[in-house]
Amino acid sequence: MQFFYAALLGYLAGSIPFGLLLAKAAGKGDIRQIGSGNIGATNVLRTGSKGLAAAVLLLDLGKGFVAVMAAWRWFPEAVSVAALAVVIGHCFPVWLKFRGGKGVATNAGVSFGLAWPIGLAYAAVWLGMLAITRTSSLAGMSAVIAAAIAAALLGYERFVLVLGIIALLVIWLHRANIARLLKGDEPKIGSRS
């Protein structure tokens, strides 16, 4: 039952659509109707509100962290299940007909919740790639791969599989971004397209 409850906790936490809720509350309308149509912080940034995008980023990160920390407290044998479920909940929320975000910020929170060194590796790669390329999708995909590699290299073998699965999911959800990257027309941070 630990695994069931951990999955339920993770999914429900992950499925809270902070980008959609905050954008509507701020009078920006339905975030799904602008830019990429995504509910994540990068698309919220396209509304022109950096503060709103930062709030969404922190809340999406926070729900990943809180779900994993709650699992450590109540379902320690099922922490990996909660970690995967919170990302799945973010990406496929039942309330939005299973069309959510791409999991990058939520997985950052998951990484910090699983083990802070994994989280630091995630953050370093994410922020470093963002600074170098100014391309959110490339930074996010690099970070999710880095988390799985960091888990393997830093002695957290227990989490390599779940972080690898999450990385594959996040990369799959970025397949349109990958196509644009290959064509050279992926938008940079700050672009409204």
Question: If you had to describe this structure to a student in words, what would you say it looks like?
Answer:
- The protein is mostly helical.
- The chain has one domain.
- The chain has helices spanning about 1-15, 20-25, 40-45, 50-75, 80-90, 105-115, 115-135, 135-155, 160-175, 175-185.
- The radius of gyration is 16 Å and the shape is globular.
- The model has no long low-confidence stretch (mean pLDDT about 90).
- Order of helical and strand elements: HHHHHHHHHH
Q: Could you tell me the mean pLDDT?
A: 91
Estimated structural class: mainly alpha
Number of domains: 1
Specify the biggest β-sheet: none
CA-CA gap between termini: 45 Å
- The shape is globular
Radius of gyration over all CA atoms, rounded: 16 Å
Number of strands: 0
Query: Hey, roughly how much beta strand do the residues contain?
Result: under 5%
Query: Total number of helical segments?
Result: 10
What is the helical fraction, as a range of percent?
55-70%
Low-confidence segments, ≥5 residues, pLDDT <50?
none
